[in-house]
Structure formats: structure tokens, C-alpha cells
Design goal:
475 residues, alpha/beta, Rossmann fold, 4 domains, 7-stranded mixed β-sheet, 5-stranded parallel β-sheet, 47% helix, globular
């Protein structure tokens, strides 16, 4: 059967996104450049919650030390003040990363090298600094994002379907509402609306924008309605991964912060199969993956984990995976993306040789392996296929206590059927019950009348077909 390891929060895009943002970006410089600060704040607004400016090292250090350990602080410091403050703060858990912005790169690189675990670089160009902060944040976000995992044992199937609905207009309206007031994301939305095409799906996914945030959050929390709105985009990504499929066996890595209870579950499930319910982003560069989990201190309830994945494209019926560096702004990440729903065999979970993190060894597995075949057959039979999955989705949403969305999908399904299709009788009955439960009694009566009228129409059609003489038969 399939059991889930999923985040406990429900899908609230604003709350979810806030938790993965940088808690505070701190700018420390005695010679304040208002233009540089304003440009930085505007360009990084979508990934930070607060922006603080300091001219004094003591005040800045006091503020940093007063923040909670679970906060994520990013610090931009001038060369002179950075040299003063970094030795005192680089070990603090709440300090995620430090960037030195200065006029003399060479001299500042010398002292900064001693604190390389936190000092991510020395920069003299503002655009280069902003680009690096965005690139690092993308990796940090991936490391901290909760994974939604299914564990499979070969006895029965369970899962969710992500097929058959795409409504661009509804998707855009949802995103515009969620990102209202965020000028950068609204610009991204306008660009997406005007410029999106299937061959740009990976390019959009690799950007730090609303598309990546919303899709990953929907998949992570298994928010069914949004997953259906994303259906066409998911298919586009799949086709692009297939067309750029890696041709040789490969080993990739992913650094991740995992809740201790989830790690315990995985340790108890070696030699079983897992499926990640989202796109699984990895890197061929193990040191890069390690550098980000090493920047996190010991955190109560969280474990530092390194996934090591062996993938062979010659395995039959695996989901596609591909190097997508050419689509990314951050080419140095050497990113390999595994398709949503990829199946992995969990080989082992062990401590690293230095005891600093856990290594989870996995192998990409074929969907068609004998002991998994029945799992997926059962899943398909349970959920149905084609148009019937719309009706199934309506039922699931109803059971989840989302009657408005259930009604929407029942009506969508009804519009795909012929006016005299017998399936409409059951749909109208469900719609009537939904309306009645919500206190919409007039609407419930309307659906009940439709049931009566449709039954009479079907009976009349059957009767007329039965009574029509077959004049084409000759004696």
C-alpha cells in the first residue's frame, strides 16, 4: 500500500511563502548609498520579509543576537564593517549567509576566506551581488521546503490523480489574488500571460517566481484544485524533460533539512519504494549540495540530510529526468530535475563518516517492475481515467469538506457530456444534495427538477427506439 509523509499545514499560499522567505535582510554600511539600498530592496522584495539598515556595528550585532535561532538572516556588509562584525556573528544559527559589498575585492577576500561557511562572496558590482543572493536563496528554499513522500509496499495502491483540467483564466485569477501588492510578481504574471508556451515550461519552473512557488506548494500540500489547474503545465514540463532526457547513468545529490520523525520513518523503510509528490530537484555537484546543509546549525526537530540518487535512463518505464542547466539563470547549480511522481528504491540511511549529516542512498526505479505493477493498476482503477476523473475529483473535494469546489467540478464534468447522457442523472442528484447541504434550497429544487426531466427524456428516447419498426428488413 502507499502511505504518506506529508506536511501537516494546509495550503495557504501567503503563510507558506512567508515561512520560506528570508526573515530579514540586514544592510550594514557606515557610508549609506540610498540608491543601492533602494534598488536592492526592490529587487529582493519577493524573497525577504523585512529589510533593516545599520551604520553602527554594535547596534547591528545587538539586533542580530536578539533574533530567534529559527530566523534566517542574510547580511550585506561593507568591507570595513564586515571585517569587524563577521568574527562575532558567523557562528550564530540565525545567520544564514553573509555577503561583503565593497570597493576592494582582493583585500576583503583574504579575511573573508576564514569564514567561508557563512560568507558566500565578496562583490563590487550590485547586480552581481543581487544575482548571487537570489541564486543562493533558491537553493536554501529547496533545502528547507518540506518533502511530500509516499512509501510503497506491494500490496495495494493509493494516491491522487493530476489529470484532465486546465483553466488558464482561473489560474491567472488565483495567482493575481495571491500576489496582490507584489509588483515584481505581478510583472511576472503579465509576462507569463503574454509569453508562456509549452517549450518554456522548464524556463518558468527554474525562475524564482510565482510559477515555481505556487506549483511546488500545491504539489507539496496535495491541494487538488490547484494541481488540476496546473495539469497542462505539468504535462509541458514532462514533455520537455522527455526531449532532454539524460542518456547516461548519473549520480545526483540533494541537500535537505528533514524533520526527525520523517527521517526515522525512512530509516525503518529501507528496501522499500518511495515517490516524491513534487518535482525533485538535484545537482551533480555534491559539494554544492553539502555547502547549504552545512550552513544550517543544529536545529531541534530537524536533521541535515544528503540524498544520493543513482539514475539509469535505460531502466524501462521510469519517469523522465534531465539536466536543465541550460534553462536556468543559475547554471552553476548543475541541476538535474526528476519528473513528478518518480519512484525510487530506498537503499540505505546512514550517518556520514564525520557524523555531521545523514546520507540517504536511493536508486531511480522502474514503474513497471513486477512488485509495483499492481500498485499502479490499483491506483488507476480507483481513480478512473479520462473524463471520469473529473467526477472523482468532485467526490474527493466533497469528502474533504470543499462543497464549492466539488460543485464546480461536477458542473465542469456535466458540460462535457451530451444533454441526454444517463451519467447526468447521478451528477444532478449530487449537485442537488450539495445545494441542500449548503442551505441553497431553491437551487436544490432546480437540480431535482432537472433529474425528473432528464429521466423522462431518457425513458421517452428508449421507448421511441423500441417502437420504431425496422423497415429495412425485407420479407
Amino acid at each position: 500500500m502507499a502511505t504518506g509523509i506529508t506536511p501537516t499545514d494546509y495550503f495557504h499560499m501567503n503563510d507558506d511563502d512567508q515561512q520560506l522567505k528570508i526573515s530579514c535582510l540586514i544592510w550594514l554600511d557606515a557610508n549609506e548609498n540610498v540608491t543601492d539600498i533602494r534598488n536592492t530592496e526592490q529587487k529582493l522584495r519577493s524573497i525577504i520579509n523585512r529589510f533593516m539598515k545599520f551604520k553602527d556595528v554594535r547596534q547591528c550585532q545587538k539586533y542580530i543576537e536578539e533574533q530567534l535561532q529559527q530566523d534566517r538572516l542574510v547580511i550585506i556588509a561593507s568591507g570595513r564593517l564586515g571585517r569587524e562584525i563577521v568574527p562575532s556573528i558567523h557562528r550564530l544559527q540565525q545567520v544564514l549567509s553573509i555577503y561583503v559589498y565593497c570597493m576592494d575585492k582582493k583585500s576583503n577576500e583574504k579575511w573573508a576566506a576564514a569564514y567561508s561557511s557563512k560568507v558566500k562572496g565578496v562583490f563590487v558590482e550590485l547586480n552581481e551581488l543581487i544575482f548571487r543572493i537570489k541564486a543562493d536563496h533558491r537553493i536554501q528554499r529547496m533545502v528547507r521546503e518540506p518533502l511530500s513522500i509516499n512509501l510503497f509496499t506491494p500490496s495495494a495502491g493509493a494516491g491522487k490523480s493530476t489529470t484532465d483540467v486546465n483553466d488558464m483564466k482561473e489560474f491567472m485569477e488565483f495567482c493575481k489574488q495571491k500576489f496582490e501588492g507584489d509588483d515584481e510578481e505581478l510583472r511576472n504574471l503579465r509576462e507569463f500571460e503574454e509569453d508562456y508556451s509549452p517549450n518554456k515550461a522548464l524556463w518558468w519552473y527554474s525562475r524564482e517566481s510565482f510559477f515555481y512557488k505556487t506549483l511546488n506548494a500545491a504539489l507539496r500540500t496535495q491541494e487538488i484544485h490547484l494541481m488540476f489547474l496546473f495539469r497542462a503545465f505539468i504535462s509541458d514540463i514532462c514533455r520537455q524533460l522527455e526531449s532532454h532526457q539524460t542518456q547516461q547513468p548519473i549520480r545526483t545529490y540533494r541537500g535537505q533539512m528533514l524533520p526527525s520523525d520523517e527521517l526515522k520513518t525512512l530509516r525503518e523503510c529501507c528496501n522499500q519504494f518511495i515517490s516524491v509528490n513534487s518535482f525533485f530537484s538535484t545537482s551533480t555537484d555534491d559539494q554544492r549540495a553539502l555547502s547549504f546543509i552545512n550552513s544550517y546549525g543544529i536545529t531541534a526537530g530537524l536533521e541535515r540530510v544528503m540524498f544520493a540518487i543513482d539514475a539509469d535512463p535505460k531502466m524501462i518505464s521510469t519517469k523522465p529526468f534531465a539536466d536543465i542547466s541550460s534553462y536556468s539563470k543559475f547554471k552553476e547549480e548543475a541541476e538535474v530535475l526528476f519528473m513528478l511522481g518518480s519512484i525510487f528504491r530506498l537503499n540505505s540511511v546512514n550517518r556520514s563518516s564525520d557524523g555531521q549529516f545523514w546520507i540517504i542512498q536511493m536508486t531511480l526505479w522502474s514503474d513497471s517492475e513486477h512488485d509495483l505493477k499492481q500498485v499502479f493498476v490499483d491506483m488507476r482503477e480507483k481513480l478512473g481515467s479520462g473524463e471520469t476523473s473529473l467526477q472523482t475529483l468532485g467526490k474527493v473535494l466533497w469528502e474533504m469538506g470543499k462543497p464549492d469546489l466539488a460543485e464546480k467540478y461536477f458542473i465542469r464534468f456535466s458540460k462535457q457530456l451530451k444533454p441526454d447522457d444517463p451519467l447526468l442523472v447521478d451528477l444532478y442528484i449530487k449537485l442537488g444534495k450539495l445545494a441542500s447541504q449548503n442551505g441553497h434550497y431553491e437551487k436544490s429544487i432546480k437540480w431535482h427538477k432537472k433529474v425528473i426531466a432528464l429521466k423522462k427524456q431518457i425513458q421517452s428516447t428508449v421507448a421511441s427506439n423500441t417502437n420504431v419498426p425496422n423497415s429495412s428488413i425485407k420479407a
